[in-house]
Amino acid sequence: RLQADVYHQRHRNMSNDSWNQFEGIGSRLIQGELQGLWLIPLLALPNAIYIWLWIAPDAWITTTKRATSITGGSWPSDKTGQGDQACKYLAVLAHTIKMIQAACVVAWFRLYSPDSLTPSGVLAQPTWRLILGFAGLAFGQCLNVAIYAAIGRNGVYYGSRLGAPLGPWCSGFPFNIPVVGRHPQYTGALLSLWGGVLLTADDSATAAGFPQVAILWTIFYIITGIVENTEGHGIVSDHPLRPDGPAARKQSKKVA
């Protein structure tokens, strides 16, 4: 009887230990997920705005008109001027959100993994991660600069959807890069993001859930790119000089 009692007690202790270990693992996983949750709405915000105004550009024009009235500015009477004004407001909004996002990402690291953003923390990464990380950041920013140089502010900020004045249709760099050329700005953003992940996601940042946050951020960009690529909606870039765009198709029908 004594041996049986000892056996059952030992079995209960082992079960309790196993359950406690399981709870600890689950708690750490949940905590790691939750530590990034407050970032998610801020990361998704610009993509939600881009999808909204891509699908409903007139709503952004109306919003811009109201904002101009509130700030005491003059609203252009012509459609082209209105589109240009809408692009100006969108550029300001986009840059403001990006600065807020950057500040929040830094705050996240300061709260949950303060050593990851220090020079010593970055340089402690393996050599291969340093090389790939800095290369991703450099090429990503190169793409972002290149697209502004190629199509300007109105081209970047949906001027083709908002009716703003546009430059010539661009098929050169960075739009001539295979795969990347369809969405060079989003590709540049993702290369910069994952370059940053390689440089900063040490054990503490990984345990706090930063890679999961980066994956969600990536998904937001992919969804936005898919929406902007949807030919079936008939709203793919309607730049007047796009060779295969709506304007060109209308012209070819007239000629025919």
From TrEMBL:
GO terms for biological process: methylation; phosphatidylcholine biosynthetic process. PANTHER family: PHOSPHATIDYLETHANOLAMINE N-METHYLTRANSFERASE. Keywords: Endoplasmic reticulum, Lipid biosynthesis, Lipid metabolism, Membrane, Methyltransferase, Phospholipid biosynthesis, Phospholipid metabolism, S-adenosyl-L-methionine, Transferase, Transmembrane, Transmembrane helix. Pathway: Lipid metabolism; Phospholipid metabolism; phosphatidylcholine biosynthesis. GO terms for molecular function: phosphatidyl-N-methylethanolamine N-methyltransferase activity. Residues 237-256 are annotated as: Disordered. It is an enzyme of class 2 (transferase). It comes from Phaeocystis antarctica. Its EC number is 2.1.1.71. It is found in: Endoplasmic reticulum membrane. It is a multi-pass membrane protein. This is phosphatidyl-N-methylethanolamine N-methyltransferase. The keyword Secreted does not apply.
